[in-house]
Amino acid sequence: MDSHIPSPPTRRLSTGERENAIDRTIPLFPPAVEIDEHNYFDNNDPPEYLESMISGVQEFVKFHINNRVVLVTSGGTTVPLENQTVRFIDNFSAGTRGATSAEYFLENGYAVIFLHRQFSLLPYSRHYSHSTNCFLDFMEEKNGKVVVDPKYQEEMLSVLRKYQAAKDKNLLLLLPFTTINQYLHTLRALSVTLQPLRSRALFYLAAAVSDFFVPLHRIPEHKIQSKAGGNKLLMNLDPVPKFLHRLVEKWAPGAMIISFKLETDSSILLSKARQALERYSHQLVIGNLLQTRKTEVVFVEPDAPAHWIRLTPGQEAAGVDIESLIIPAIVKRHTVWIKESGNSA
């Protein structure tokens, strides 16, 4: 029951492969402007469910109009290669950061809109899903009934109570996405819907968003046949417009915006995070390295030195979530943001 099966090792590129894998002299894509927004959203249809989804969000915002509300985005987006999708390009993310952070935002008094990749980790259920153990291993049969194994009851009861409290107080709204197009349309619609909250709205953009996509007019209707291109499959993908600046300037003016920067090279993490902050004019970039993302992050803010948040060896050994340190630090900054905006907390 308690044995853990080690994950298969991740293949890393050799030095020669890394040097040839990407041309690092290519300039970054510029932030999207108004014409980019029109070109994308006019030519890539919104998901059919979007209107009904936003109707539910409007009710949620109305209910919490005097409270703090955080939009947490979580998990990776997919890029379909066919309209009737069999194949797609995916982004690496199980949604751990987003799901864990959502729980700590709830503990800190926020209402949470959780925009997540379908079937990725969810707040509270994350403790028992995507585990090396089957969920059924937490249960046993007793007198013909299914009960929780006694050694897990205390922990599961605590998690259950937190989940039920969030539901009973209407503090958690779960919204799914799968594709990059669904994500972008939903993000824009949510941003506009959250505008009445002004500075009480917080955007915590932890989703892994695709950098490239296939425009709708170029997606084949049916499954790509394996023999159609001989030995190779050649794809022509367009860059996904960088809408973060539009979010800051037009979609959610007044809200506090937080983005993430994930790197694998420690020597460029701070410069990349600072560059993102300057390009998009938002309030905070949280930088993290793939190798150490669960034990340390760095806050990069305008006109401030980099601020590292790290688990101590004791906290790491005890299984403390680094998000339990990240979220209170964000709450303090959001409080200052609200006060400086003249909006009530």
UniProtKB/TrEMBL annotation:
Belongs to the PPC synthetase family. Signal peptide: none annotated. InterPro entries: CoaB-like_sf, DNA/pantothenate-metab_flavo_C. Residues 67-119, 197-294 form the DNA/pantothenate metabolism flavoprotein C-terminal domain. GO terms for molecular function: phosphopantothenate--cysteine ligase activity. The lineage of its organism: Eukaryota, Fungi, Dikarya, Ascomycota, Saccharomycotina. One of its GO terms (biological process) is coenzyme A biosynthetic process. Gene3D superfamilies: CoaB-like. This is DNA/pantothenate metabolism flavoprotein C-terminal domain-containing protein. One of its GO terms (cellular component) is CoA-synthesizing protein complex.
